[in-house]
Amino acid sequence: MATSLPVADYGAFVEKFTLPPDPSSHKLPLAGLTFAVKDIFDVKGYVTGFGNPDWARTHSVATSTAPAVLSVLKAGATGVGKTVMDEMAYSINGENIHYGTPTNPCAADRVPGGSSSGSAVAVGANLVDFSLGTDTGGSVRVPASYCGILGFRPSHGIVSTSGVTPMAQSFDTVGWFARDPAILKQVGEILLQLQADTPTTLIQLIVAEDCFNLLNIPSHQLIEKLVGAVEKLYGSEKIQYTSLGNFVGAKVPSLKHFMDNNASKQEDNIPSLAALSSAMRLLQRYEFKNNHGEWIRAVKPNLGPGIAERIWEALKTTDENIDVCHSLKNELRSALSDLLGDFSILAMPIVPGPPPKLRTEPTTLEVFRAKAFSLLSVAGVSGFCQVCIPLGMYEDLPVAVSLVAKHGCDGFLLNFVETLHKNLELS
């Protein structure tokens, strides 16, 4: 229990402990930094709770530590505890009826975002220097946005998910949070095993104007702040605007299987991205059922509102259109690779606006959630890397923007963020 945590309690931790750096390492790039881990990672000697007491009760103590955790320990960082998460990683709200909801350090009456809620709050509240989370449908990007910090979802398959309880393997990634872009990059260099000569030259910043139009706050302020910083660094000729929805609709033929004619008539909707979201959530439900359906049916765990309905609905999923989902993933990755190349970046929102209020009825959040998953599905389905960058406050609530880069261009994106962040602070 030895720890140097501040007295203030934000409810971020399930349990606190000390994981010292690996003394066998000769080079300690993360020496002196503290970190926390989401309760989805195996840590030797502790039960991986997966956000639910019934899961913890029916699972044994981990006999080994997840490679991602070992990597940062070997790099000299000190672990200080496991953090609260949404039950079975099946929410982007961050509310947990069993362990309590971590307090959003930017807005105490608002949700912290999930499912890596405690990991985001631990960083946002200055309890640790960085933290590890996972991102399947948005579980690093959303809480980073809500808590006013940096959050990185790496390219799918780049960081080992061994020793991490799976949610849906086609989308699961190990992500991380930090307040400082230099620390975000340092952690990335360890987890991604980056070389020092990663390029930093930007070819184009492509702004997805239609995606910014989904925001429930004035979007021009966010765009102007981001574009202004990029123009100072690289010049106005580097800025390009596009309709991402039209591009995706034209380049991803398998989307036709998921198009909703009624949805296309709704206001504030991008039909192609709504279809993309439908495909992502279908495959996610199917893989979740295959991973955990047997346990859920046998144990019948006590689940919180919203999550219970979602999980039991997932257990009804069949394999219809699952093959199409995999084809769609390949088509989207190919299309976006052509759009971005190795050194262009796509700018878009992460969620439709600031964090919702605590204990908002799930039905009230449906429109917000639908828009959110339309935005989140772009990186989720393509497997591209995406970073959340805080852009200050709007009416006393945190707002953010995101940058997306081609699969495998994680080092380039982290370098760009570090350079850009300095100019954002000056603008």
SSE blueprint:
Layout: E1 13-19, E2 34-38, H1 53-57, H2 67-74, E3 78-83, H3 117-124, E4 130-135, H4 141-147, E5 150-153, E6 173-178, H5 181-191, E7 204-208, H6 209-212, H7 220-234, E8 239-242, H8 244-251, H9 271-299, H10 307-314, H11 322-340, E9 344-348, H12 366-382, E10 385-394, E11 397-405, H13 410-426
Parallel strand pairs: 2-3, 2-4, 7-8, 7-9
Antiparallel strand pairs: 1-3, 4-6, 5-6, 5-10, 9-11, 10-11
Helix pairs in contact: 5-13, 7-13, 9-11, 9-12
In short:
The protein has 13 helices and eleven strands.
What does this structure look like?
The chain is of the alpha/beta class and 427 residues long. It folds into two domains: 13-192, Amidase signature (AS) enzymes (Alpha-Beta Complex), CATH 3.90.1300.10; 204-425, Amidase signature (AS) enzymes (Alpha-Beta Complex), CATH 3.90.1300. It is built from 13 helices and eleven strands. The chain has helices spanning 53-57, 67-74, 117-124, 141-147, 181-191, 209-212, 220-234, 244-251, 271-299, 307-314, 322-340, 366-382, 410-426, and strands at residues 13-19, 34-38, 78-83, 130-135, 150-153, 173-178, 204-208, 239-242, 344-348, 385-394, 397-405. The protein has an eleven-stranded mixed β-sheet, sandwiched between helices. β10 (385-394) and β11 form a beta hairpin. α9 (271-299) crosses α11 (322-340) and α9 (271-299) crosses α12. The protein is globular. It starts with 12 loop residues before the first strand and ends with a helix. Residues 1-7 have low confidence and may be disordered.
